[in-house]
Amino acid sequence: MPLQTSDGILKALGDEPLRDAGELRAKLVPKLKLYLEEGRARGEQQLLDTEDGLVCAKYLSTHMDDLVQLVHDAVVRHLYPAENPSSGERIAVVATGGYGRGTLAPGSDVDLLFLLPYKQTAWSESVVEGMLYVLWDLKLKVGHATRSVEDCIREARADMTIRTALLESRFLFGDRALFDDLVQRFDKEVVATSAAEFVDAKLKERDARVAKAGASRYLVEPNVKDGKGGLRDLNTLFWIGKYVYQVKKPKELVKAGLFTPEEFKLFQRCEEFLWRVRCHMHFATGRAEERLTFDLQRVIAERIGVAPRGGLSTVERFMKTYFLIAKDVGDLTAIVCAELEARQTKKRPMLDRVFGRFRRRRGGALAGNDFIIDNNRINVKNEDVFGRDPVNLIRLFWLADKHNLAIHPDATRLATRSLKLIGQNLRRDPEANKLFLDIITSRNAPEVVLRHMNEAGVLGRFIPDFGRIVAMMQFNMYHHYTVDEHLIRTIGVLTEIETGQLGNEHPLANQIFTTIQNRRALYVAVFLHDIAKGRPEDHSIAGAAIARKLGPRFGLTDAETDTVAWLVEHHLLMSNTAQSRDLSDPSTIKSFADVVQTMERLKLLLVLTIADIKAVGPGTWTGWKGQLLRTLYYETEVLLGGGAADVARSDRVRLAQEQLRKALPEWSDEEFEQYAARHTPAYWLKTDDERRVKQAHFVRAADKDGRTVTTCYETDHFRGVTELTVLSPDHPRLLAIVTGACAAAGGNIVDAQIFTTTDGMALDTIVLSRAFDRDEDELRRAERVAKAIERALKGEVKIADLVESKRPSKPSSRAFNVPPEVILDNSLSSRQTVIEISGLDRPGLLYDLTTALGKLNLNIASAHIVTFGEKAVDVFYVTDLTGTKVTHAGRQATIRRTLLDVFKNEEAEHPQKRSA
């Protein structure tokens, strides 16, 4: 039995009028809170029992109906009774917006219209005010309006939001005649005369909403309500159908010709699933949370009851289902909205798109009379075009690319219904594969056409290995899109590079693209580079095997196939080397060159790497990464060409010193010789000419002013970084202090170049990622970071306390589990031991690691910091205090154990982090 009933609550208030609104609320609100809580608890239990989101949403809406009426009855009975109501003392309470549809999520707004016959009276104003105060005391988010019928009609004409809200109005209680009058006048005076205007406005509104929430339905943290493929898209579809065809219920869309019965079943399945996810999200968070964030994904997957299967985790299986549903929503809305948009533009009042009915309107035949141009879009001439020749399923998209035309929704719909025709015979067909290769390597818009193929389901059926990664998410904060969307976007970036659209951003790639001889191999490799994601084996190696299988099928030569397979297998090599290795170390370049072997492969790998990083998501590409890639390219180019790499080390030092001497004509010979003698050979070999000049002036000025601890900074907009140079007496904990000061001041370190002069001074360059677009803002931030470093080095602040004060009270990446790993390698450098540390990133991690290295009495020669979303990969080139590599097994074990303890200590302090 329920704790509270509406009748019981009203009876508990008694029959006599109360003294004032305050007394009513004091008695009523506590009981209504229990009533509301019980209703929500029952709704949640229904959700868990029935596994039906619509059942839950409809129950919550009905429960809210009862509560609103209960509030009204209590206010009217005890505060403002109308014994002999006049014609003006009438009111109808109407649900509008989402609440008007009869579905309500636990945290949704309650949208109410208080409908009056004409102007507001003192009685109606008091009733509305009394109701609202009670609803607000219940902490409900109430959207409300008090209008007459005439007000509603006038404002609906002027405001599309009000018009849409009224379109979904639902009578709750009160004067039914008032509501019926509103509906009749709204249909006659607003809807009947403005269908084209409404359709156009809703489609534009949808575009703006999707752009704001995230332009792709494959964003890995989607907005369930407003994102592409979310509930609002289904709402938009129904609004348009309701407005244009005067349908009252979604199932009437079949009779209107918008859906086949099968498609309406798909509509229902999508709506139920999205409501189920949304209600679970609200219940789990206790608020109106609409974004399916990483930390929520695991929770909702478990609440829904998804189990791991087929190599996919619980979260990955759940999100794959979500993205497939979002794709289905996209298919439904694209078909209906495109058709309505085209026909409403022509002011055609009815939509005569019964399936299988095709009419040629404008344009000629294409491809042997199988296709026509219909309203400037490619359409099929008749419904047996795919059954008669399945190659047409590929030819449709090939023609779209060749003629730069959109595909008619009828053709897309028929292609999706014909997917069973795509079997082994079509996959082996030489003509079909030739057409597909033309699409991938097109100079027009391969990204757009491939996305259409994917959304129609053709791409995954024609390339089953691609079908395995359709809607597959990558459960990390680094990748922004599902795997299939990432691959398609990578093709788009590659096209932009080739056409010169990104010349300013990628000057080297733009320059070398015209010299690439294996263009077809490059495009195919880009399309396939992540195709083996989600398999138990390494996706690069498994992907290479897939490439060897698909290359001959596509019509590639043996040499092209070998190139594609090599690129897929090594597609991460250049990025990893550039970001996590010392590019001034000859061993780094030699190891990389040994794998690459030829200039052609080097060019191909550079372009593929750029396209891959850029397609990960907004903000992933930075100018700093571009600079690292260019440096690696140029250094490897020299080695592959057999040129300056053979120059003796002493000669390279001498040449560097001569270059600097020429750049400092105002210095005396004696002054320059003293300065040059302060630097070790490593300095001359690892720094570029421009930096040597700047640092010479910096050190000279510090010496002149007697400053032993000082900093300077400059920003580089093109590389997207800010460089801080630090001069200080050297000591083992120097880098720890610098990284701690940076962390406390909000500086995100991406690289560090560290040198010690012969007279015991440290000259370190710390590279920070930019935080601001405007240079003046970035320089102000750099000044704050620089001052924090100086204060810490001078002992004015205790760096450990400063870092600790900046750590968040709760860890931010609890959704993820990144097992820490420490690798020591003496083969990667001729002079230092390379320590690679990976694990879950957190504020202050770099400080903790450098502190641990200092306590281990290790000298850090250089540091390279990379983050992949929640995963940090920090690489240190170190020596022991005698300047030699760490070779003793026991010593290595101690280092490994100490560094792993950095992560274990964090887990001990925040055990909830291990919940993932």
TrEMBL record:
Its EC number is 2.7.7.59, 3.1.4.-. Pfam families: ACT (PF01842), GlnD_UR_UTase (PF08335), HD (PF01966), NTP_transf_2 (PF01909). One of its GO terms (molecular function) is [protein-PII] uridylyltransferase activity. The keyword Manganese does not apply. The gene is glnD. Uridylyltransferase (UTase) activity is inhibited by glutamine, while glutamine activates uridylyl-removing (UR) activity. Residues 1-365 are annotated as: Uridylyltransferase. It catalyses: [protein-PII]-L-tyrosine + UTP = [protein-PII]-uridylyl-L-tyrosine + diphosphate; [protein-PII]-uridylyl-L-tyrosine + H2O = [protein-PII]-L-tyrosine + UMP + H(+). Gene3D superfamilies: 3.30.70.260, Beta Polymerase, domain 2 (3.30.460.10), cca-adding enzyme, domain 2 (1.10.3090.10). This is Bifunctional uridylyltransferase/uridylyl-removing enzyme. Keywords: Hydrolase, Magnesium, Multifunctional enzyme, Nucleotidyltransferase, Repeat, Transferase. Modifies, by uridylylation and deuridylylation, the PII regulatory proteins (GlnB and homologs), in response to the nitrogen status of the cell that GlnD senses through the glutamine level. Under low glutamine levels, catalyzes the conversion of the PII proteins and UTP to PII-UMP and PPi, while under higher glutamine levels, GlnD hydrolyzes PII-UMP to PII and UMP (deuridylylation). Thus, controls uridylylation state and activity of the PII proteins, and plays an important role in the regulation of nitrogen metabolism. The keyword Repeat applies. GO terms for biological process: regulation of nitrogen utilization. Its cofactor is Mg(2+).
